[in-house]
Amino acid sequence: MGRVKYYFSRLMRMNYGAMFKAVGEVHKRSGKNRVIIFFDMIGCSIKYQAGYMDYKVFFFENLTKKQRASFVTRGVNNAYIKKLNDPTYNHFFRNKKEFNEKFREYLNRDFIDLDVASYEEFLDFIEANPTFMAKPKDGQCGKDIEKITIDNNTVKTELYNKLKENKQLLLETYVVQHPEISRLFPKSVNTIRMVTMRVNGKTTIAYRVIRIGNGDNVVDNFNHGGMFSVVDENGKITKPAIDKAGNVYETHPVTGTEIMGFQIPRFEEAKALVMKMSEVIPEIGYTGWDICITEKGPVVIEGNEFPGYDVYQSKIHLDEDNMGLKPMFDKIIKGA
To answer: Do the domains at 85-95+177-335 and 110-173 have one common CATH topology?
Structure first.
């Protein structure tokens, strides 16, 4: 009875306008009847805990029952988080300043918090870091992140006041990525996302992707025009990249660098780093770590206590059997 109430409640809260839009998009690409798609979406919501966006993104209309059941959907991902992550520790990841303090010894970069730092400390920071990143302490998806460079025309008091006004209170060293990574795209820091699952004192790196910038954005975020591709356990990009609009890239449209087969430098060091970090707050066992590779080694950008799940199972990144990641994730949880 409780499960029935849960799904009824979800149906009552659903954004049906967005759902009907998704139905239309699936209809356009597949030619299938809209009514059949609609009720199939409802059925997948109940059976596979898949939202209508999961249905659209994962091309569920073309998949068998076995294939559908193999996907980490929204509900499945939430269940992993509920099982492995204690929400009382979420604040260490949601507040970027708290995260920096907790993982200070692993960051390999400097930072300052304008909420507590004096103006003189601000001046010391920008003198040591004439190029830096300004961020809100609780921002997400790359929102309100700005790259700032100090020059002879900079009025430092005005900059200080502007940052305070804009709530861009966390200033961090601008990380200079490895020249090899810049071959992919030099205008943004192209980060590696590694997802770790820590169960019964054992950490496993469940998945790895690289996020690559595009256009004029200084961030590589998927929601800001960036693209991503999957990376194997040895640090090699094994599939083409894809952006949020569904455009697929075998070579980067700006640099012309071939994406498939690209070898990420110092990858073993990055793997070792996230394994160590996973032990710092073991109460958060399911974590996404964003790492930048520099010439001196890996640098930590941030950690995420609510790892996304959709980008890891993009259609172009699946094997020929079109199976999702749920069997692998379940094996990690049961076998640890």
So the answer is: no
